TrEMBL record:
Family: Belongs to the ROK (NagC/XylR) family.
Pfam families per the UniProt record, alphabetical: HTH_IclR, ROK
Organism: Streptomyces longisporoflavus
Leader sequence segment: none
PANTHER family: BIFUNCTIONAL UDP-N-ACETYLGLUCOSAMINE 2-EPIMERASE_N-ACETYLMANNOSAMINE KINASE, ROK (REPRESSOR, ORF, KINASE) FAMILY
Protein name, as recorded: ROK family protein
Domain HTH iclR-type: 21-61
Length: 388
């Protein structure tokens, strides 16, 4: 019994050491065995054994030497985390469009797809469109279903801790666990999250808020919604509805999109907002009045969040960002009499991929959580690309 217990303890210790080495490689690659030993505090033989196991199961590989690199004697072998060992998908499906992104485990986007959606499409048909769109997208890029370790879908609605959605935009989805429906027989994790929550994750990861901790993100366009991070962490609230000031008629955000309905001239294929922005750039009085009206409608909600959170930064994202050059100073003027301090206001640079980019980040967070824990790592060995 003692020998069996001791063997079990040794196996557990080896698994823990393997996890520690994978965590170090994931954090910084490539590294030599000596660097890994110093980084982890493990002995070199222990590190070497862990690297061999990770390599055998497809999570680590020997790094190629840089072109032109010269070193006296035999160069030390360097190892890296294999970002190509799996893929994640980020999706944004709303009332008017669907955006899909495919990324490796390092967060590099490998492929993207966007298509318009009929806003009158029902909830069931919209879900079928997403399923078919994902399947076609992956097939077009020769990605096997088993390669997808996690997928995350951004939706216009509040997602509670149990995964149930409440949506005023797509009412048929309310009360539904979309993640469970989408995960049917699919490998890997399937996550569903509120779209504006994903937008603020994207801004913190790759956008305008990379250096800010307390951030308010305002999603503008066909609707207005808000989200926030506090101390760099997404604040979802008790039931996932933090920041949803767009639902409060008193503040005016619920009708803000009406101000963007431009009846003026449009070039072929030009969106309504793009035409409005072009007209405002040309100092068209009607366009400038429309932008001012939009600022009037969204500023009280931004002021309420500014007073509640006192953020470092407010990021404007979504469809109305082409108006930013005119919109930002107008919002700043309107916030001065309403707030104690006017926060810095920035425009997102992520364009229509903002929500899907945040979905990629959330999917990566799930994969990293799985791979960097002892028990999940052992489970991954049974399905890893290099598993015999």
């Amino acid at each position: 019994m003692r020998n069996g217990t001791r063997g079990h303890d040794l196996a557990s210790l080896r698994r823990l050491n393997t996890t520690v080495v994978l965590r170090a490689l994931h954090r910084r690659s490539p590294q030599t065995l000596a660097e890994l030993a110093a980084d982890t505090g493990l002995s070199r033989p222990t590190v070497e054994s862990a690297v061999e196991e990770l390599t055998a199961h497809g999570w680590a590989a020997e790094a190629e030497r840089d072109e032109g690199e010269r070193a006296p004697g035999r160069p030390a072998r360097r190892f890296r985390f294999r970002v190509e060992a799996g893929r994640v998908v980020g999706a944004d499906i709303g009332l008017h469009k669907m955006v899909l992104l495919l990324a490796d485990l390092g967060g590099t986007v490998l492929a993207a797809h966007r298509e318009d959606i009929d806003p009158d499409l029902g909830g069931a048909e919209r879900l079928d469109l997403l399923r078919a769109g994902l399947a076609t997208f992956l097939a077009a890029h020769a990605v096997r279903r088993d390669d997808i370790l996690a997928r995350c879908v951004g939706v216009p609605g509040v997602v509670d801790a149990g995964g149930t959605l409440t949506s005023h935009v797509i009412p048929e989805w309310s009360g539904v666990d979309l993640a469970r429906l989408l995960a049917d027989e699919e490998p890997g994790h399937t996550l569903v999250e509120n779209d504006v929550n994903l937008a603020v994750l994207a801004e913190r990861w790759q956008g305008a808020a990379t250096l800010a901790g307390d951030v308010v993100c305002v999603l503008t366009g066909h609707r207005v919604a808000c989200s926030l991070t506090i101390g760099g962490r997404l604040h979802r609230g008790r039931r996932g509805g933090a920041g949803e000031l767009g639902l409060l008629p008193l503040l005016g955000m619920d009708t803000a999109q009406e101000a963007l309905r431009w009846q003026g001239a449009r070039d072929p294929g030009e969106s309504e907002v793009a035409a409005l922005a072009r007209a405002a750039d040309d100092a068209d009085p009607r366009a400038l009045a429309a932008v001012a009206d939009f600022a009037d409608r969204i500023s009280p909600g931004i002021a309420a969040l500014a007073l509640a959170v006192d953020p470092e930064l407010v990021v404007l994202t979504g469809g109305a960002t082409p108006l930013g050059g005119h919109l930002v100073p107008l919002i700043e003027d309107r916030l001065r009499p309403l707030t104690l301090h006017v926060p810095r206001i920035a425009l997102s640079t992520l364009g229509e991929k903002g929500v899907a980019t945040g979905a990629v980040r959330k999917a990566l967070d799930q994969v990293e959580s799985d791979l960097l824990t002892d028990s999940a790592l052992q489970e991954s060995f049974r399905t890893a690309p290099g598993h015999p």
